[in-house]
Amino acid sequence: xxxxxxxxxxxxxxxxxxxxxxxxxxxxxxxxxxxxxxxxxxxxxxxxxxxxxxxxxxxxxxxxxxxxxxxxxxxxxxxxxxxxxxxxxxxxxxxxxxxxxxxxxxxxxxxxxxxxxxxxxxxxxxxxxxxxxxxxxxxxxxxxxxxxxxxxxxxxxxxxxxxxxxxxxxxxxxxxxxxxxxxxxxxxxxxxxxxxxxxxxxxxxxxxxxxxxxxxxxxxxxxxxxxxxxxxxxxxxxxxxxxxxxxxxxxxxxxxxxxxxxxxxxxxxxxxxxxxxxxxxxxxxxxxxxxxxxxxxxxxxxxxxxxxxxxxxxxxxxxxxxxxxxxxxxxxxxxxxxxxxxxxxxxxxxxxxxxxxxxxxxxxxxxxxxxxxxxxxxxxxxxxxxxxxxxxxxxxxxxxxxxxxxxxxxxxxxxxxxxxxxxxxxxxxxxxxxxxxxxxxxxxxxxxxxxxxxx
Length: 455
Hints:
15% strand; 5-stranded mixed sheet; globular; two-stranded antiparallel sheet
């Protein structure tokens, strides 16, 4: 990238701020949520100190960290979204099949892939593509496809600037500012549906998320998510701020050493909608506020253990949408996850999680075992933050914010090949990225110490 080009991380930060400002104006409770998270984070750091709060408490990115979520309807939309995010240094990482939880989409997360980019600004957008093939009613499927084929979710100015960035290898400051303004229009809420009231209600009966994707001018941002140091405290304090939280926190239970990702949200707004045929106005429920707490990234072995324990929990109890069994669910979750080690030494020594290594005090040259070097203070291991998502948790958030009306049953049917064809690119393997970051840090630390690791 030329020195005259605006750094991608700077464009990403500008876009993240603009998106946050727009969403706060559209969904005022999001502003309340932001204030609550800031207060909780400050309280945690004041109480235990930044060091005791772990890596997250010491990361400068914490206060600006956000992730958003959008849903697109066609392969062409997904491919162009990929190009849009690439201008900001965000690339597709991970494949998520949400049909396993009855949601008719499959997804990826656009985010920075490198350590420096994540440190500068870790903005992520969880992006889902509608699975039209999962709509059983052929006539309804064709009607939805027809509606989607007629819309254009990008402004001409946005397309022109994407092409300019691709041709020039970046954007100058003026073009970058204009790109942010143009790109923001894709994610803006529009209360006027592009379909008749009859088609809207038919699609909504099939699945509310299908109506959300098909029936509007574009993929309005459906939530933005700040990061907290104590999600249980946020969950407990939401009602006092006039926010109604979902019944249970998605993901692993409360732990001394947080792992992966925990998420909760306030329940979605019912927003007024009008229809193109002048049919009776209705309401649409899809947009909400979410909070996340991130822990250490797990290795394949760690994920296998996590997935098996979560499956055991879900075999014993499924969280009810109305929260009626929330206490019982939390009890089972905590009981089952006692089998997951809860110290960083154990997680590291058992190969369950990824760590970033730095050189500690000097060590004598020669071959040394990594754990011996850590015990001697020659190496320092810090948990690598999990930057990605969990399909069951994402589906749980979606389902709790799409209303309780009946919807068609779906069969699990992952199709990564079709998703990547629509995307026009392969998605990066998130576990490979964590493994590479761990190995690179270890190699650099050992080189600084003048020693070689013993296998």
